Amino acid sequence: MTDERTDDVRRGDGRAGDVRAGDVPAGDVPAGDERKGDVPAGEVRAGDVREGDEWVGDERARDVRKRDERTSDERAGHLRKGDVRKGRVVRGTLSPGSIAASALALGDQEGPEAMTARRIAAYVGCDPMTLYRHFANLVALLDAVADLAVGGVVLPDDRAPWVVRLRETLANSREVALAHPGIAPHIASRPPLGPHGQQIGRILLGALRDAGLSDEDTVATSQVLIAYLSSSLAMAVATQGQRDDRWTEAAHALRSIGQNSTEQMPAAGSIEQFTLGLDLLVDGLRMRTNTAHLPSAP
């Protein structure tokens, strides 16, 4: 009978537990060594990873690669279906600013329906609960996104006449908000109160004070102007400034009561309607400030 052991095993040089190809004849497994899930020599189970020169049976990639926190998709240079690579933030660099910027970009691409914690988190590349380490709730996150959006508003020179400052601030705010369709509805319902929103408010308040309004009237009038801007935004978001079925119904109703000049009626939410309304507001302010110094009627 021949000695089928290897030279290393006969000399006692084989390490305990080492198994080399050919050490055990095919089909010969020592008693008690049969374990559920063993695979033939040369085959590796899914998820096994190589550590040095040996396959470690039950180690998973996350254990050996614990220092590499990227996903396999990111290492491969591609993303899963539905992910948007542009919005992903490098792990460890998340901040309120980076999250808000990514959410703004997502809304620009996919609209207001994408402004959910789950969609934003997927775009950023984190778990939804991670967002709440940086924001108290979803509303707070959207407030930050709204304020970031209006940071693009071009503000007039403080030395310009009050009418110019008023018109340009409101018109430019409307234009910028509508350029970000994902967050425009939120801006309409909750005018931003962050740093950029405060800067817009400062310009408006300064223009109204320079128009000659008292401090009380300045604050009250600024609220009216913001409400007008918000409502015009809401209508623009709803109709895209186009003549829709509701416009047709309104035109028909006006003709039925004797008003036939409906073809010139601007569409709800259109720039024409906004400009007309702003003209009326400015004219009213001019009249109020021009007569403010006169004695009240008995």
From TrEMBL:
Q: Which terms does the UniProt entry file under GO BP? A: negative regulation of DNA-templated transcription; response to antibiotic
Q: What is this protein called?
A: TetR family transcriptional regulator
All copies of domain HTH tetR-type, residue ranges? 93-153
Bias category Basic and acidic residues: which stretches?
7-21, 45-84
Keyword flag Transcription: yes
| Region entry Disordered, spans | 1-84
**Annotation: DNA-binding region:** 116-135
Keyword terms: DNA-binding, Repressor, Transcription, Transcription regulation
Is DNA-binding among the key words of this record?
Answer: yes
UniProt xrefs under Pfam families: TetR_C_1 (PF02909), TetR_N (PF00440)
Q: Where are the transmembrane segments?
A: none
A molecular function GO annotation: DNA binding
